[in-house]
Amino acid sequence: MRIICVNTGDKFGQWYVDNLKHMIDNYSGLKYDSFEVITEEKHKGVFNKLQMFDKFRDGENLYFDLDICIYNKVPNLIRKNLTVLHAWWRDREHTSFNSSVISWTGDRSFIYDEFKKDPDMWQKKYYRGMDQMLEENFSVKTYDKVCYSVKDNEYKPKDDNFSIMLFNQKQYLMEEGWSGWWTNYFL
Known about the structure:
The chain has 187 residues and is α/β, with parallel strands linked by helices. It has one domain (2-185): Alpha-Beta Complex (Spore Coat Polysaccharide Biosynthesis Protein SpsA, Chain A), CATH 3.90.550.10. The chain has helices at residues 14-28, 51-55, 109-117, 119-125, 130-137, and strands spanning 2-6, 34-38, 60-64, 68-70, 83-86, 97-105, 141-142, 148-149, 164-166.
């Protein structure tokens, strides 16, 4: 199995990559063959994630966003079909998908191939991010409830029904000075 993350631009520093690997190695129970980091910035923001479908065309692949907390053994997240999170913790808004965790097996390069035909068009049409693009244009499955969001949970104890918490654009809560329970699992 290959674990993948993306660290492009200046939103996240190296600490976030090291921290993700630390949590995977110490708490997740995941056994993997390689830990891959995409750093080349070819596109705007989150659309750099799509590079992973071009770069990793074989085997079992499991992607994690950098702004998450893994605090216990994760369920089996490996899937044959392209699978993302169902964002059950929020109103639908523009999409019910969340790409903080993604899995697939084999070649899904056709997703990146389609995107690179006209990146400007895709990025303008889906200006809120790639989740809606995936939902509306590709065959994608969703996980059952395998994680939850920090949204509306900042001051609550950790939820032991899960092993992963997403920060969903609230990565500042991961920074030094915050004292949430999640800091006990960080570097």
